[in-house]
Amino acid sequence: MKEIYIGAGVGVFIFLAAVGFNVVPLALFILVMGGFIYFIQTQGQIKFNDVSRGVKSGQIISFDDIGGQDSAINELKEALEFLVKPDVIQRMGIRPLKGILLVGPPGTGKTLLARAAAAYTSSVFIATSGSEFIEMYAGVGAKRVRQLFLDARKKAARENSRSAIIFIDELDVLGAKRGKHSGHMEYDQTLNQLLVEMDGITPDEDPRILLVGATNRVDLLDPALLRPGRFDRQVQVGLPDKEGRRRILSIHTRNKPLRSPEVLDEIAAATFGFSGAHLESLANEAAILAMRENSPTVESVHFTEAIDKVLLGEKDSRKPNRQEIERVSYHEAGHALVSEMVSPGSVAYLTIIPRGGALGFMRKSSHDDQYLYTRMELEKQIMVTLAGAVSEELIYGDRSTGARNDFSQAWQTAREIVQSGLSSLGVVSIDDLPDHMLYEECWKVINEMECKTRQLLSERLPQLRKIAVVLLDEESMDQTRFQALLN
Predict the structure, then answer these.
(1) Strands of 361-364's sheet in order across
(2) Contact in structure between 245 and 68 (CB atoms under 8 Å)
(3) 3-state secondary structure of 176
(4) CA angle in degrees (0–180, nearest 5) for 462-319-475
(5) Residue 240: partners with Cβ closer than 8 Å, 6 or more residues away
(6) Which of 148, 330, 437, 460 has its CA 20 to 30 A from that of 177?
């Protein structure tokens, strides 16, 4: 048909030109319109294989290569059984899952889990991002969704695979609640097409299609995506615990010459709240520091400095004057002394070397991961954050702007006390609580803790001065050195 239309069009042009009609404006108009239509069509074309992280063409990722996510792996394996054992699933009368949603903070390994799922089920793997589907032209996103499922089926047929896994990262961009983008209906059309494609997945389909999505904002997704028959199962991919962090560190240090594997136990305990991506960067930075010092092995000191670099950034080239450095020394000494008094053994590292945006900092150690806090424990946190400013006030008679972040943290902790129903107000709704009542209650908590902190430091001024003087001279202090000073 295309050749017939082209031939007929050329014949019409020749006829019009023969009868004396000026065909130049018409030719220009057709060229412009043809170019525009071609441009719109090419916008709908995207080579998902180009952004694919296929397990057959690249490095094979297995579940053994993912640490700290045992619960998520077990739940994901159970959801993948219909791809691995379709006959058993059919005999039991189980409806196969159409979609699995991986939910968790950034850097926790959601993409790795999707790749490992493809290797576990021997499926072809096509990966893309939610932002790849959104364009300013109407209908482009819907066309890309159709093409995505079509490419998955074609790739499975080409590689003689019985199943295909489609992975969409940042699903909240594509699957946001409809009606939210009132001025841009392209979002809703794209989501509608995705829903239609998921409804079109049938149990007896060959190849079998499984859609895996990843997001850290499940609250933004449209309810139609989360209902049964679409994304049937949500797998929580959270931050790893202590044993998980130890496993992740061992994975990322397999090709690194460690001085002693026991150092990983210490680092795992000191990295509460780190994601898998943070730990990978930590191991890499430790190896870089060892190479910088021409050390044949990666030692504990390299990991310790790498933790600070991952948290705060590279050492700053700024050089504060002597008075500022001295004030920072008393500030950090106050943090450390109060932290040790309210929670013995909690001080891991102390320094006045500028790093990132901080002129100094104290890093706390954690023997065990903690997820629940009592009011007393939260009050101790407030005392530690206020201790820097209070120590400055005791020594110099005034405070500095260096305590600004400390005050912000103290206020957030006081707000947590109120919001959790641990304050004198009892159980409250933070949204319905009047602003002045929230302010007064937070101020009362902080003021009470400030008085306790001042009293605690006033009774230990000689120790405060001693720690600050040594810190000013040595610039950094580890836990052993700090404990020796106190003793």
Answers:
(1) 361-364, 347-351, 476-478
(2) yes
(3) strand
(4) 35
(5) 67, 68, 69, 108, 247, 248, 274, 275, 276, 279
(6) 148
Q: Token pair 């001025």 is at which residue?
A: 183
- Residue-range domain boundaries for the chain: 2-43, 48-236, 242-312, 322-486
DSSP 136: S
Say whether domain 48-236 belongs to CATH 3.90.550.10. no
- As annotated, the active-site residues are 332
Tell whether the torsion through CA atoms of 286, 289, 295 and 299 is positive or negative: negative
Q: How many helices (H) and strands (E) does the chain have?
A: 20, 8
CB crowding 58-89: b at 16 or more within 10 Å, else e: eeebebeebbbbeebbebbeebbbbbeebeeb
Per-residue pLDDT of the chain (487 residues; tens, 9 = 90+): 656 666 776 677 676 667 667 766 767 777 777 665 655 555 444 554 433 434 444 567 888 888 888 888 888 888 888 888 877 877 878 777 888 999 988 888 888 898 998 888 888 898 888 877 776 555 677 888 888 888 888 888 888 888 889 999 888 888 888 766 554 566 678 888 888 888 877 777 778 888 999 998 888 888 888 888 888 888 889 888 888 888 999 988 888 888 888 888 888 888 878 888 889 999 998 999 899 889 898 888 888 888 878 877 776 666 778 888 889 999 999 999 999 999 888 888 888 888 766 788 888 876 666 778 899 999 999 999 999 999 999 999 888 888 888 899 999 999 999 999 998 888 988 888 888 999 999 999 999 999 999 999 999 999 999 999 998 888 888 888 888 888 7
Q: Which CATH architecture has domain 322-486?
A: Up-down Bundle (1.20)
Whether the CA torsion 422, 423, 429, 435 is positive or negative: it is: negative
Q: Return d(Cα 176, Cα 183) in angstroms, integer.
A: 14
Report the predicted TM-score, pTM, of the whole model to 2 decimal places. Answer: 0.71
Q: Give the SS3 label for residue 145.
A: helix
Token digits of residue 144: 């890309």
Long-range CB pairs of 365-368, under 8 A, 24+ apart, other chains included: 365/269, 365/270, 365/479, 366/269, 366/270, 366/272, 367/269, 368/242
Tell me whether residue 156 is exposed, middle or buried, using C-beta atoms within 10 angstroms of its C-beta: 0 to 12, 13 to 18, 19 or more.
buried
Q: Which two tokens stand for residue 246?
A: 């130890």
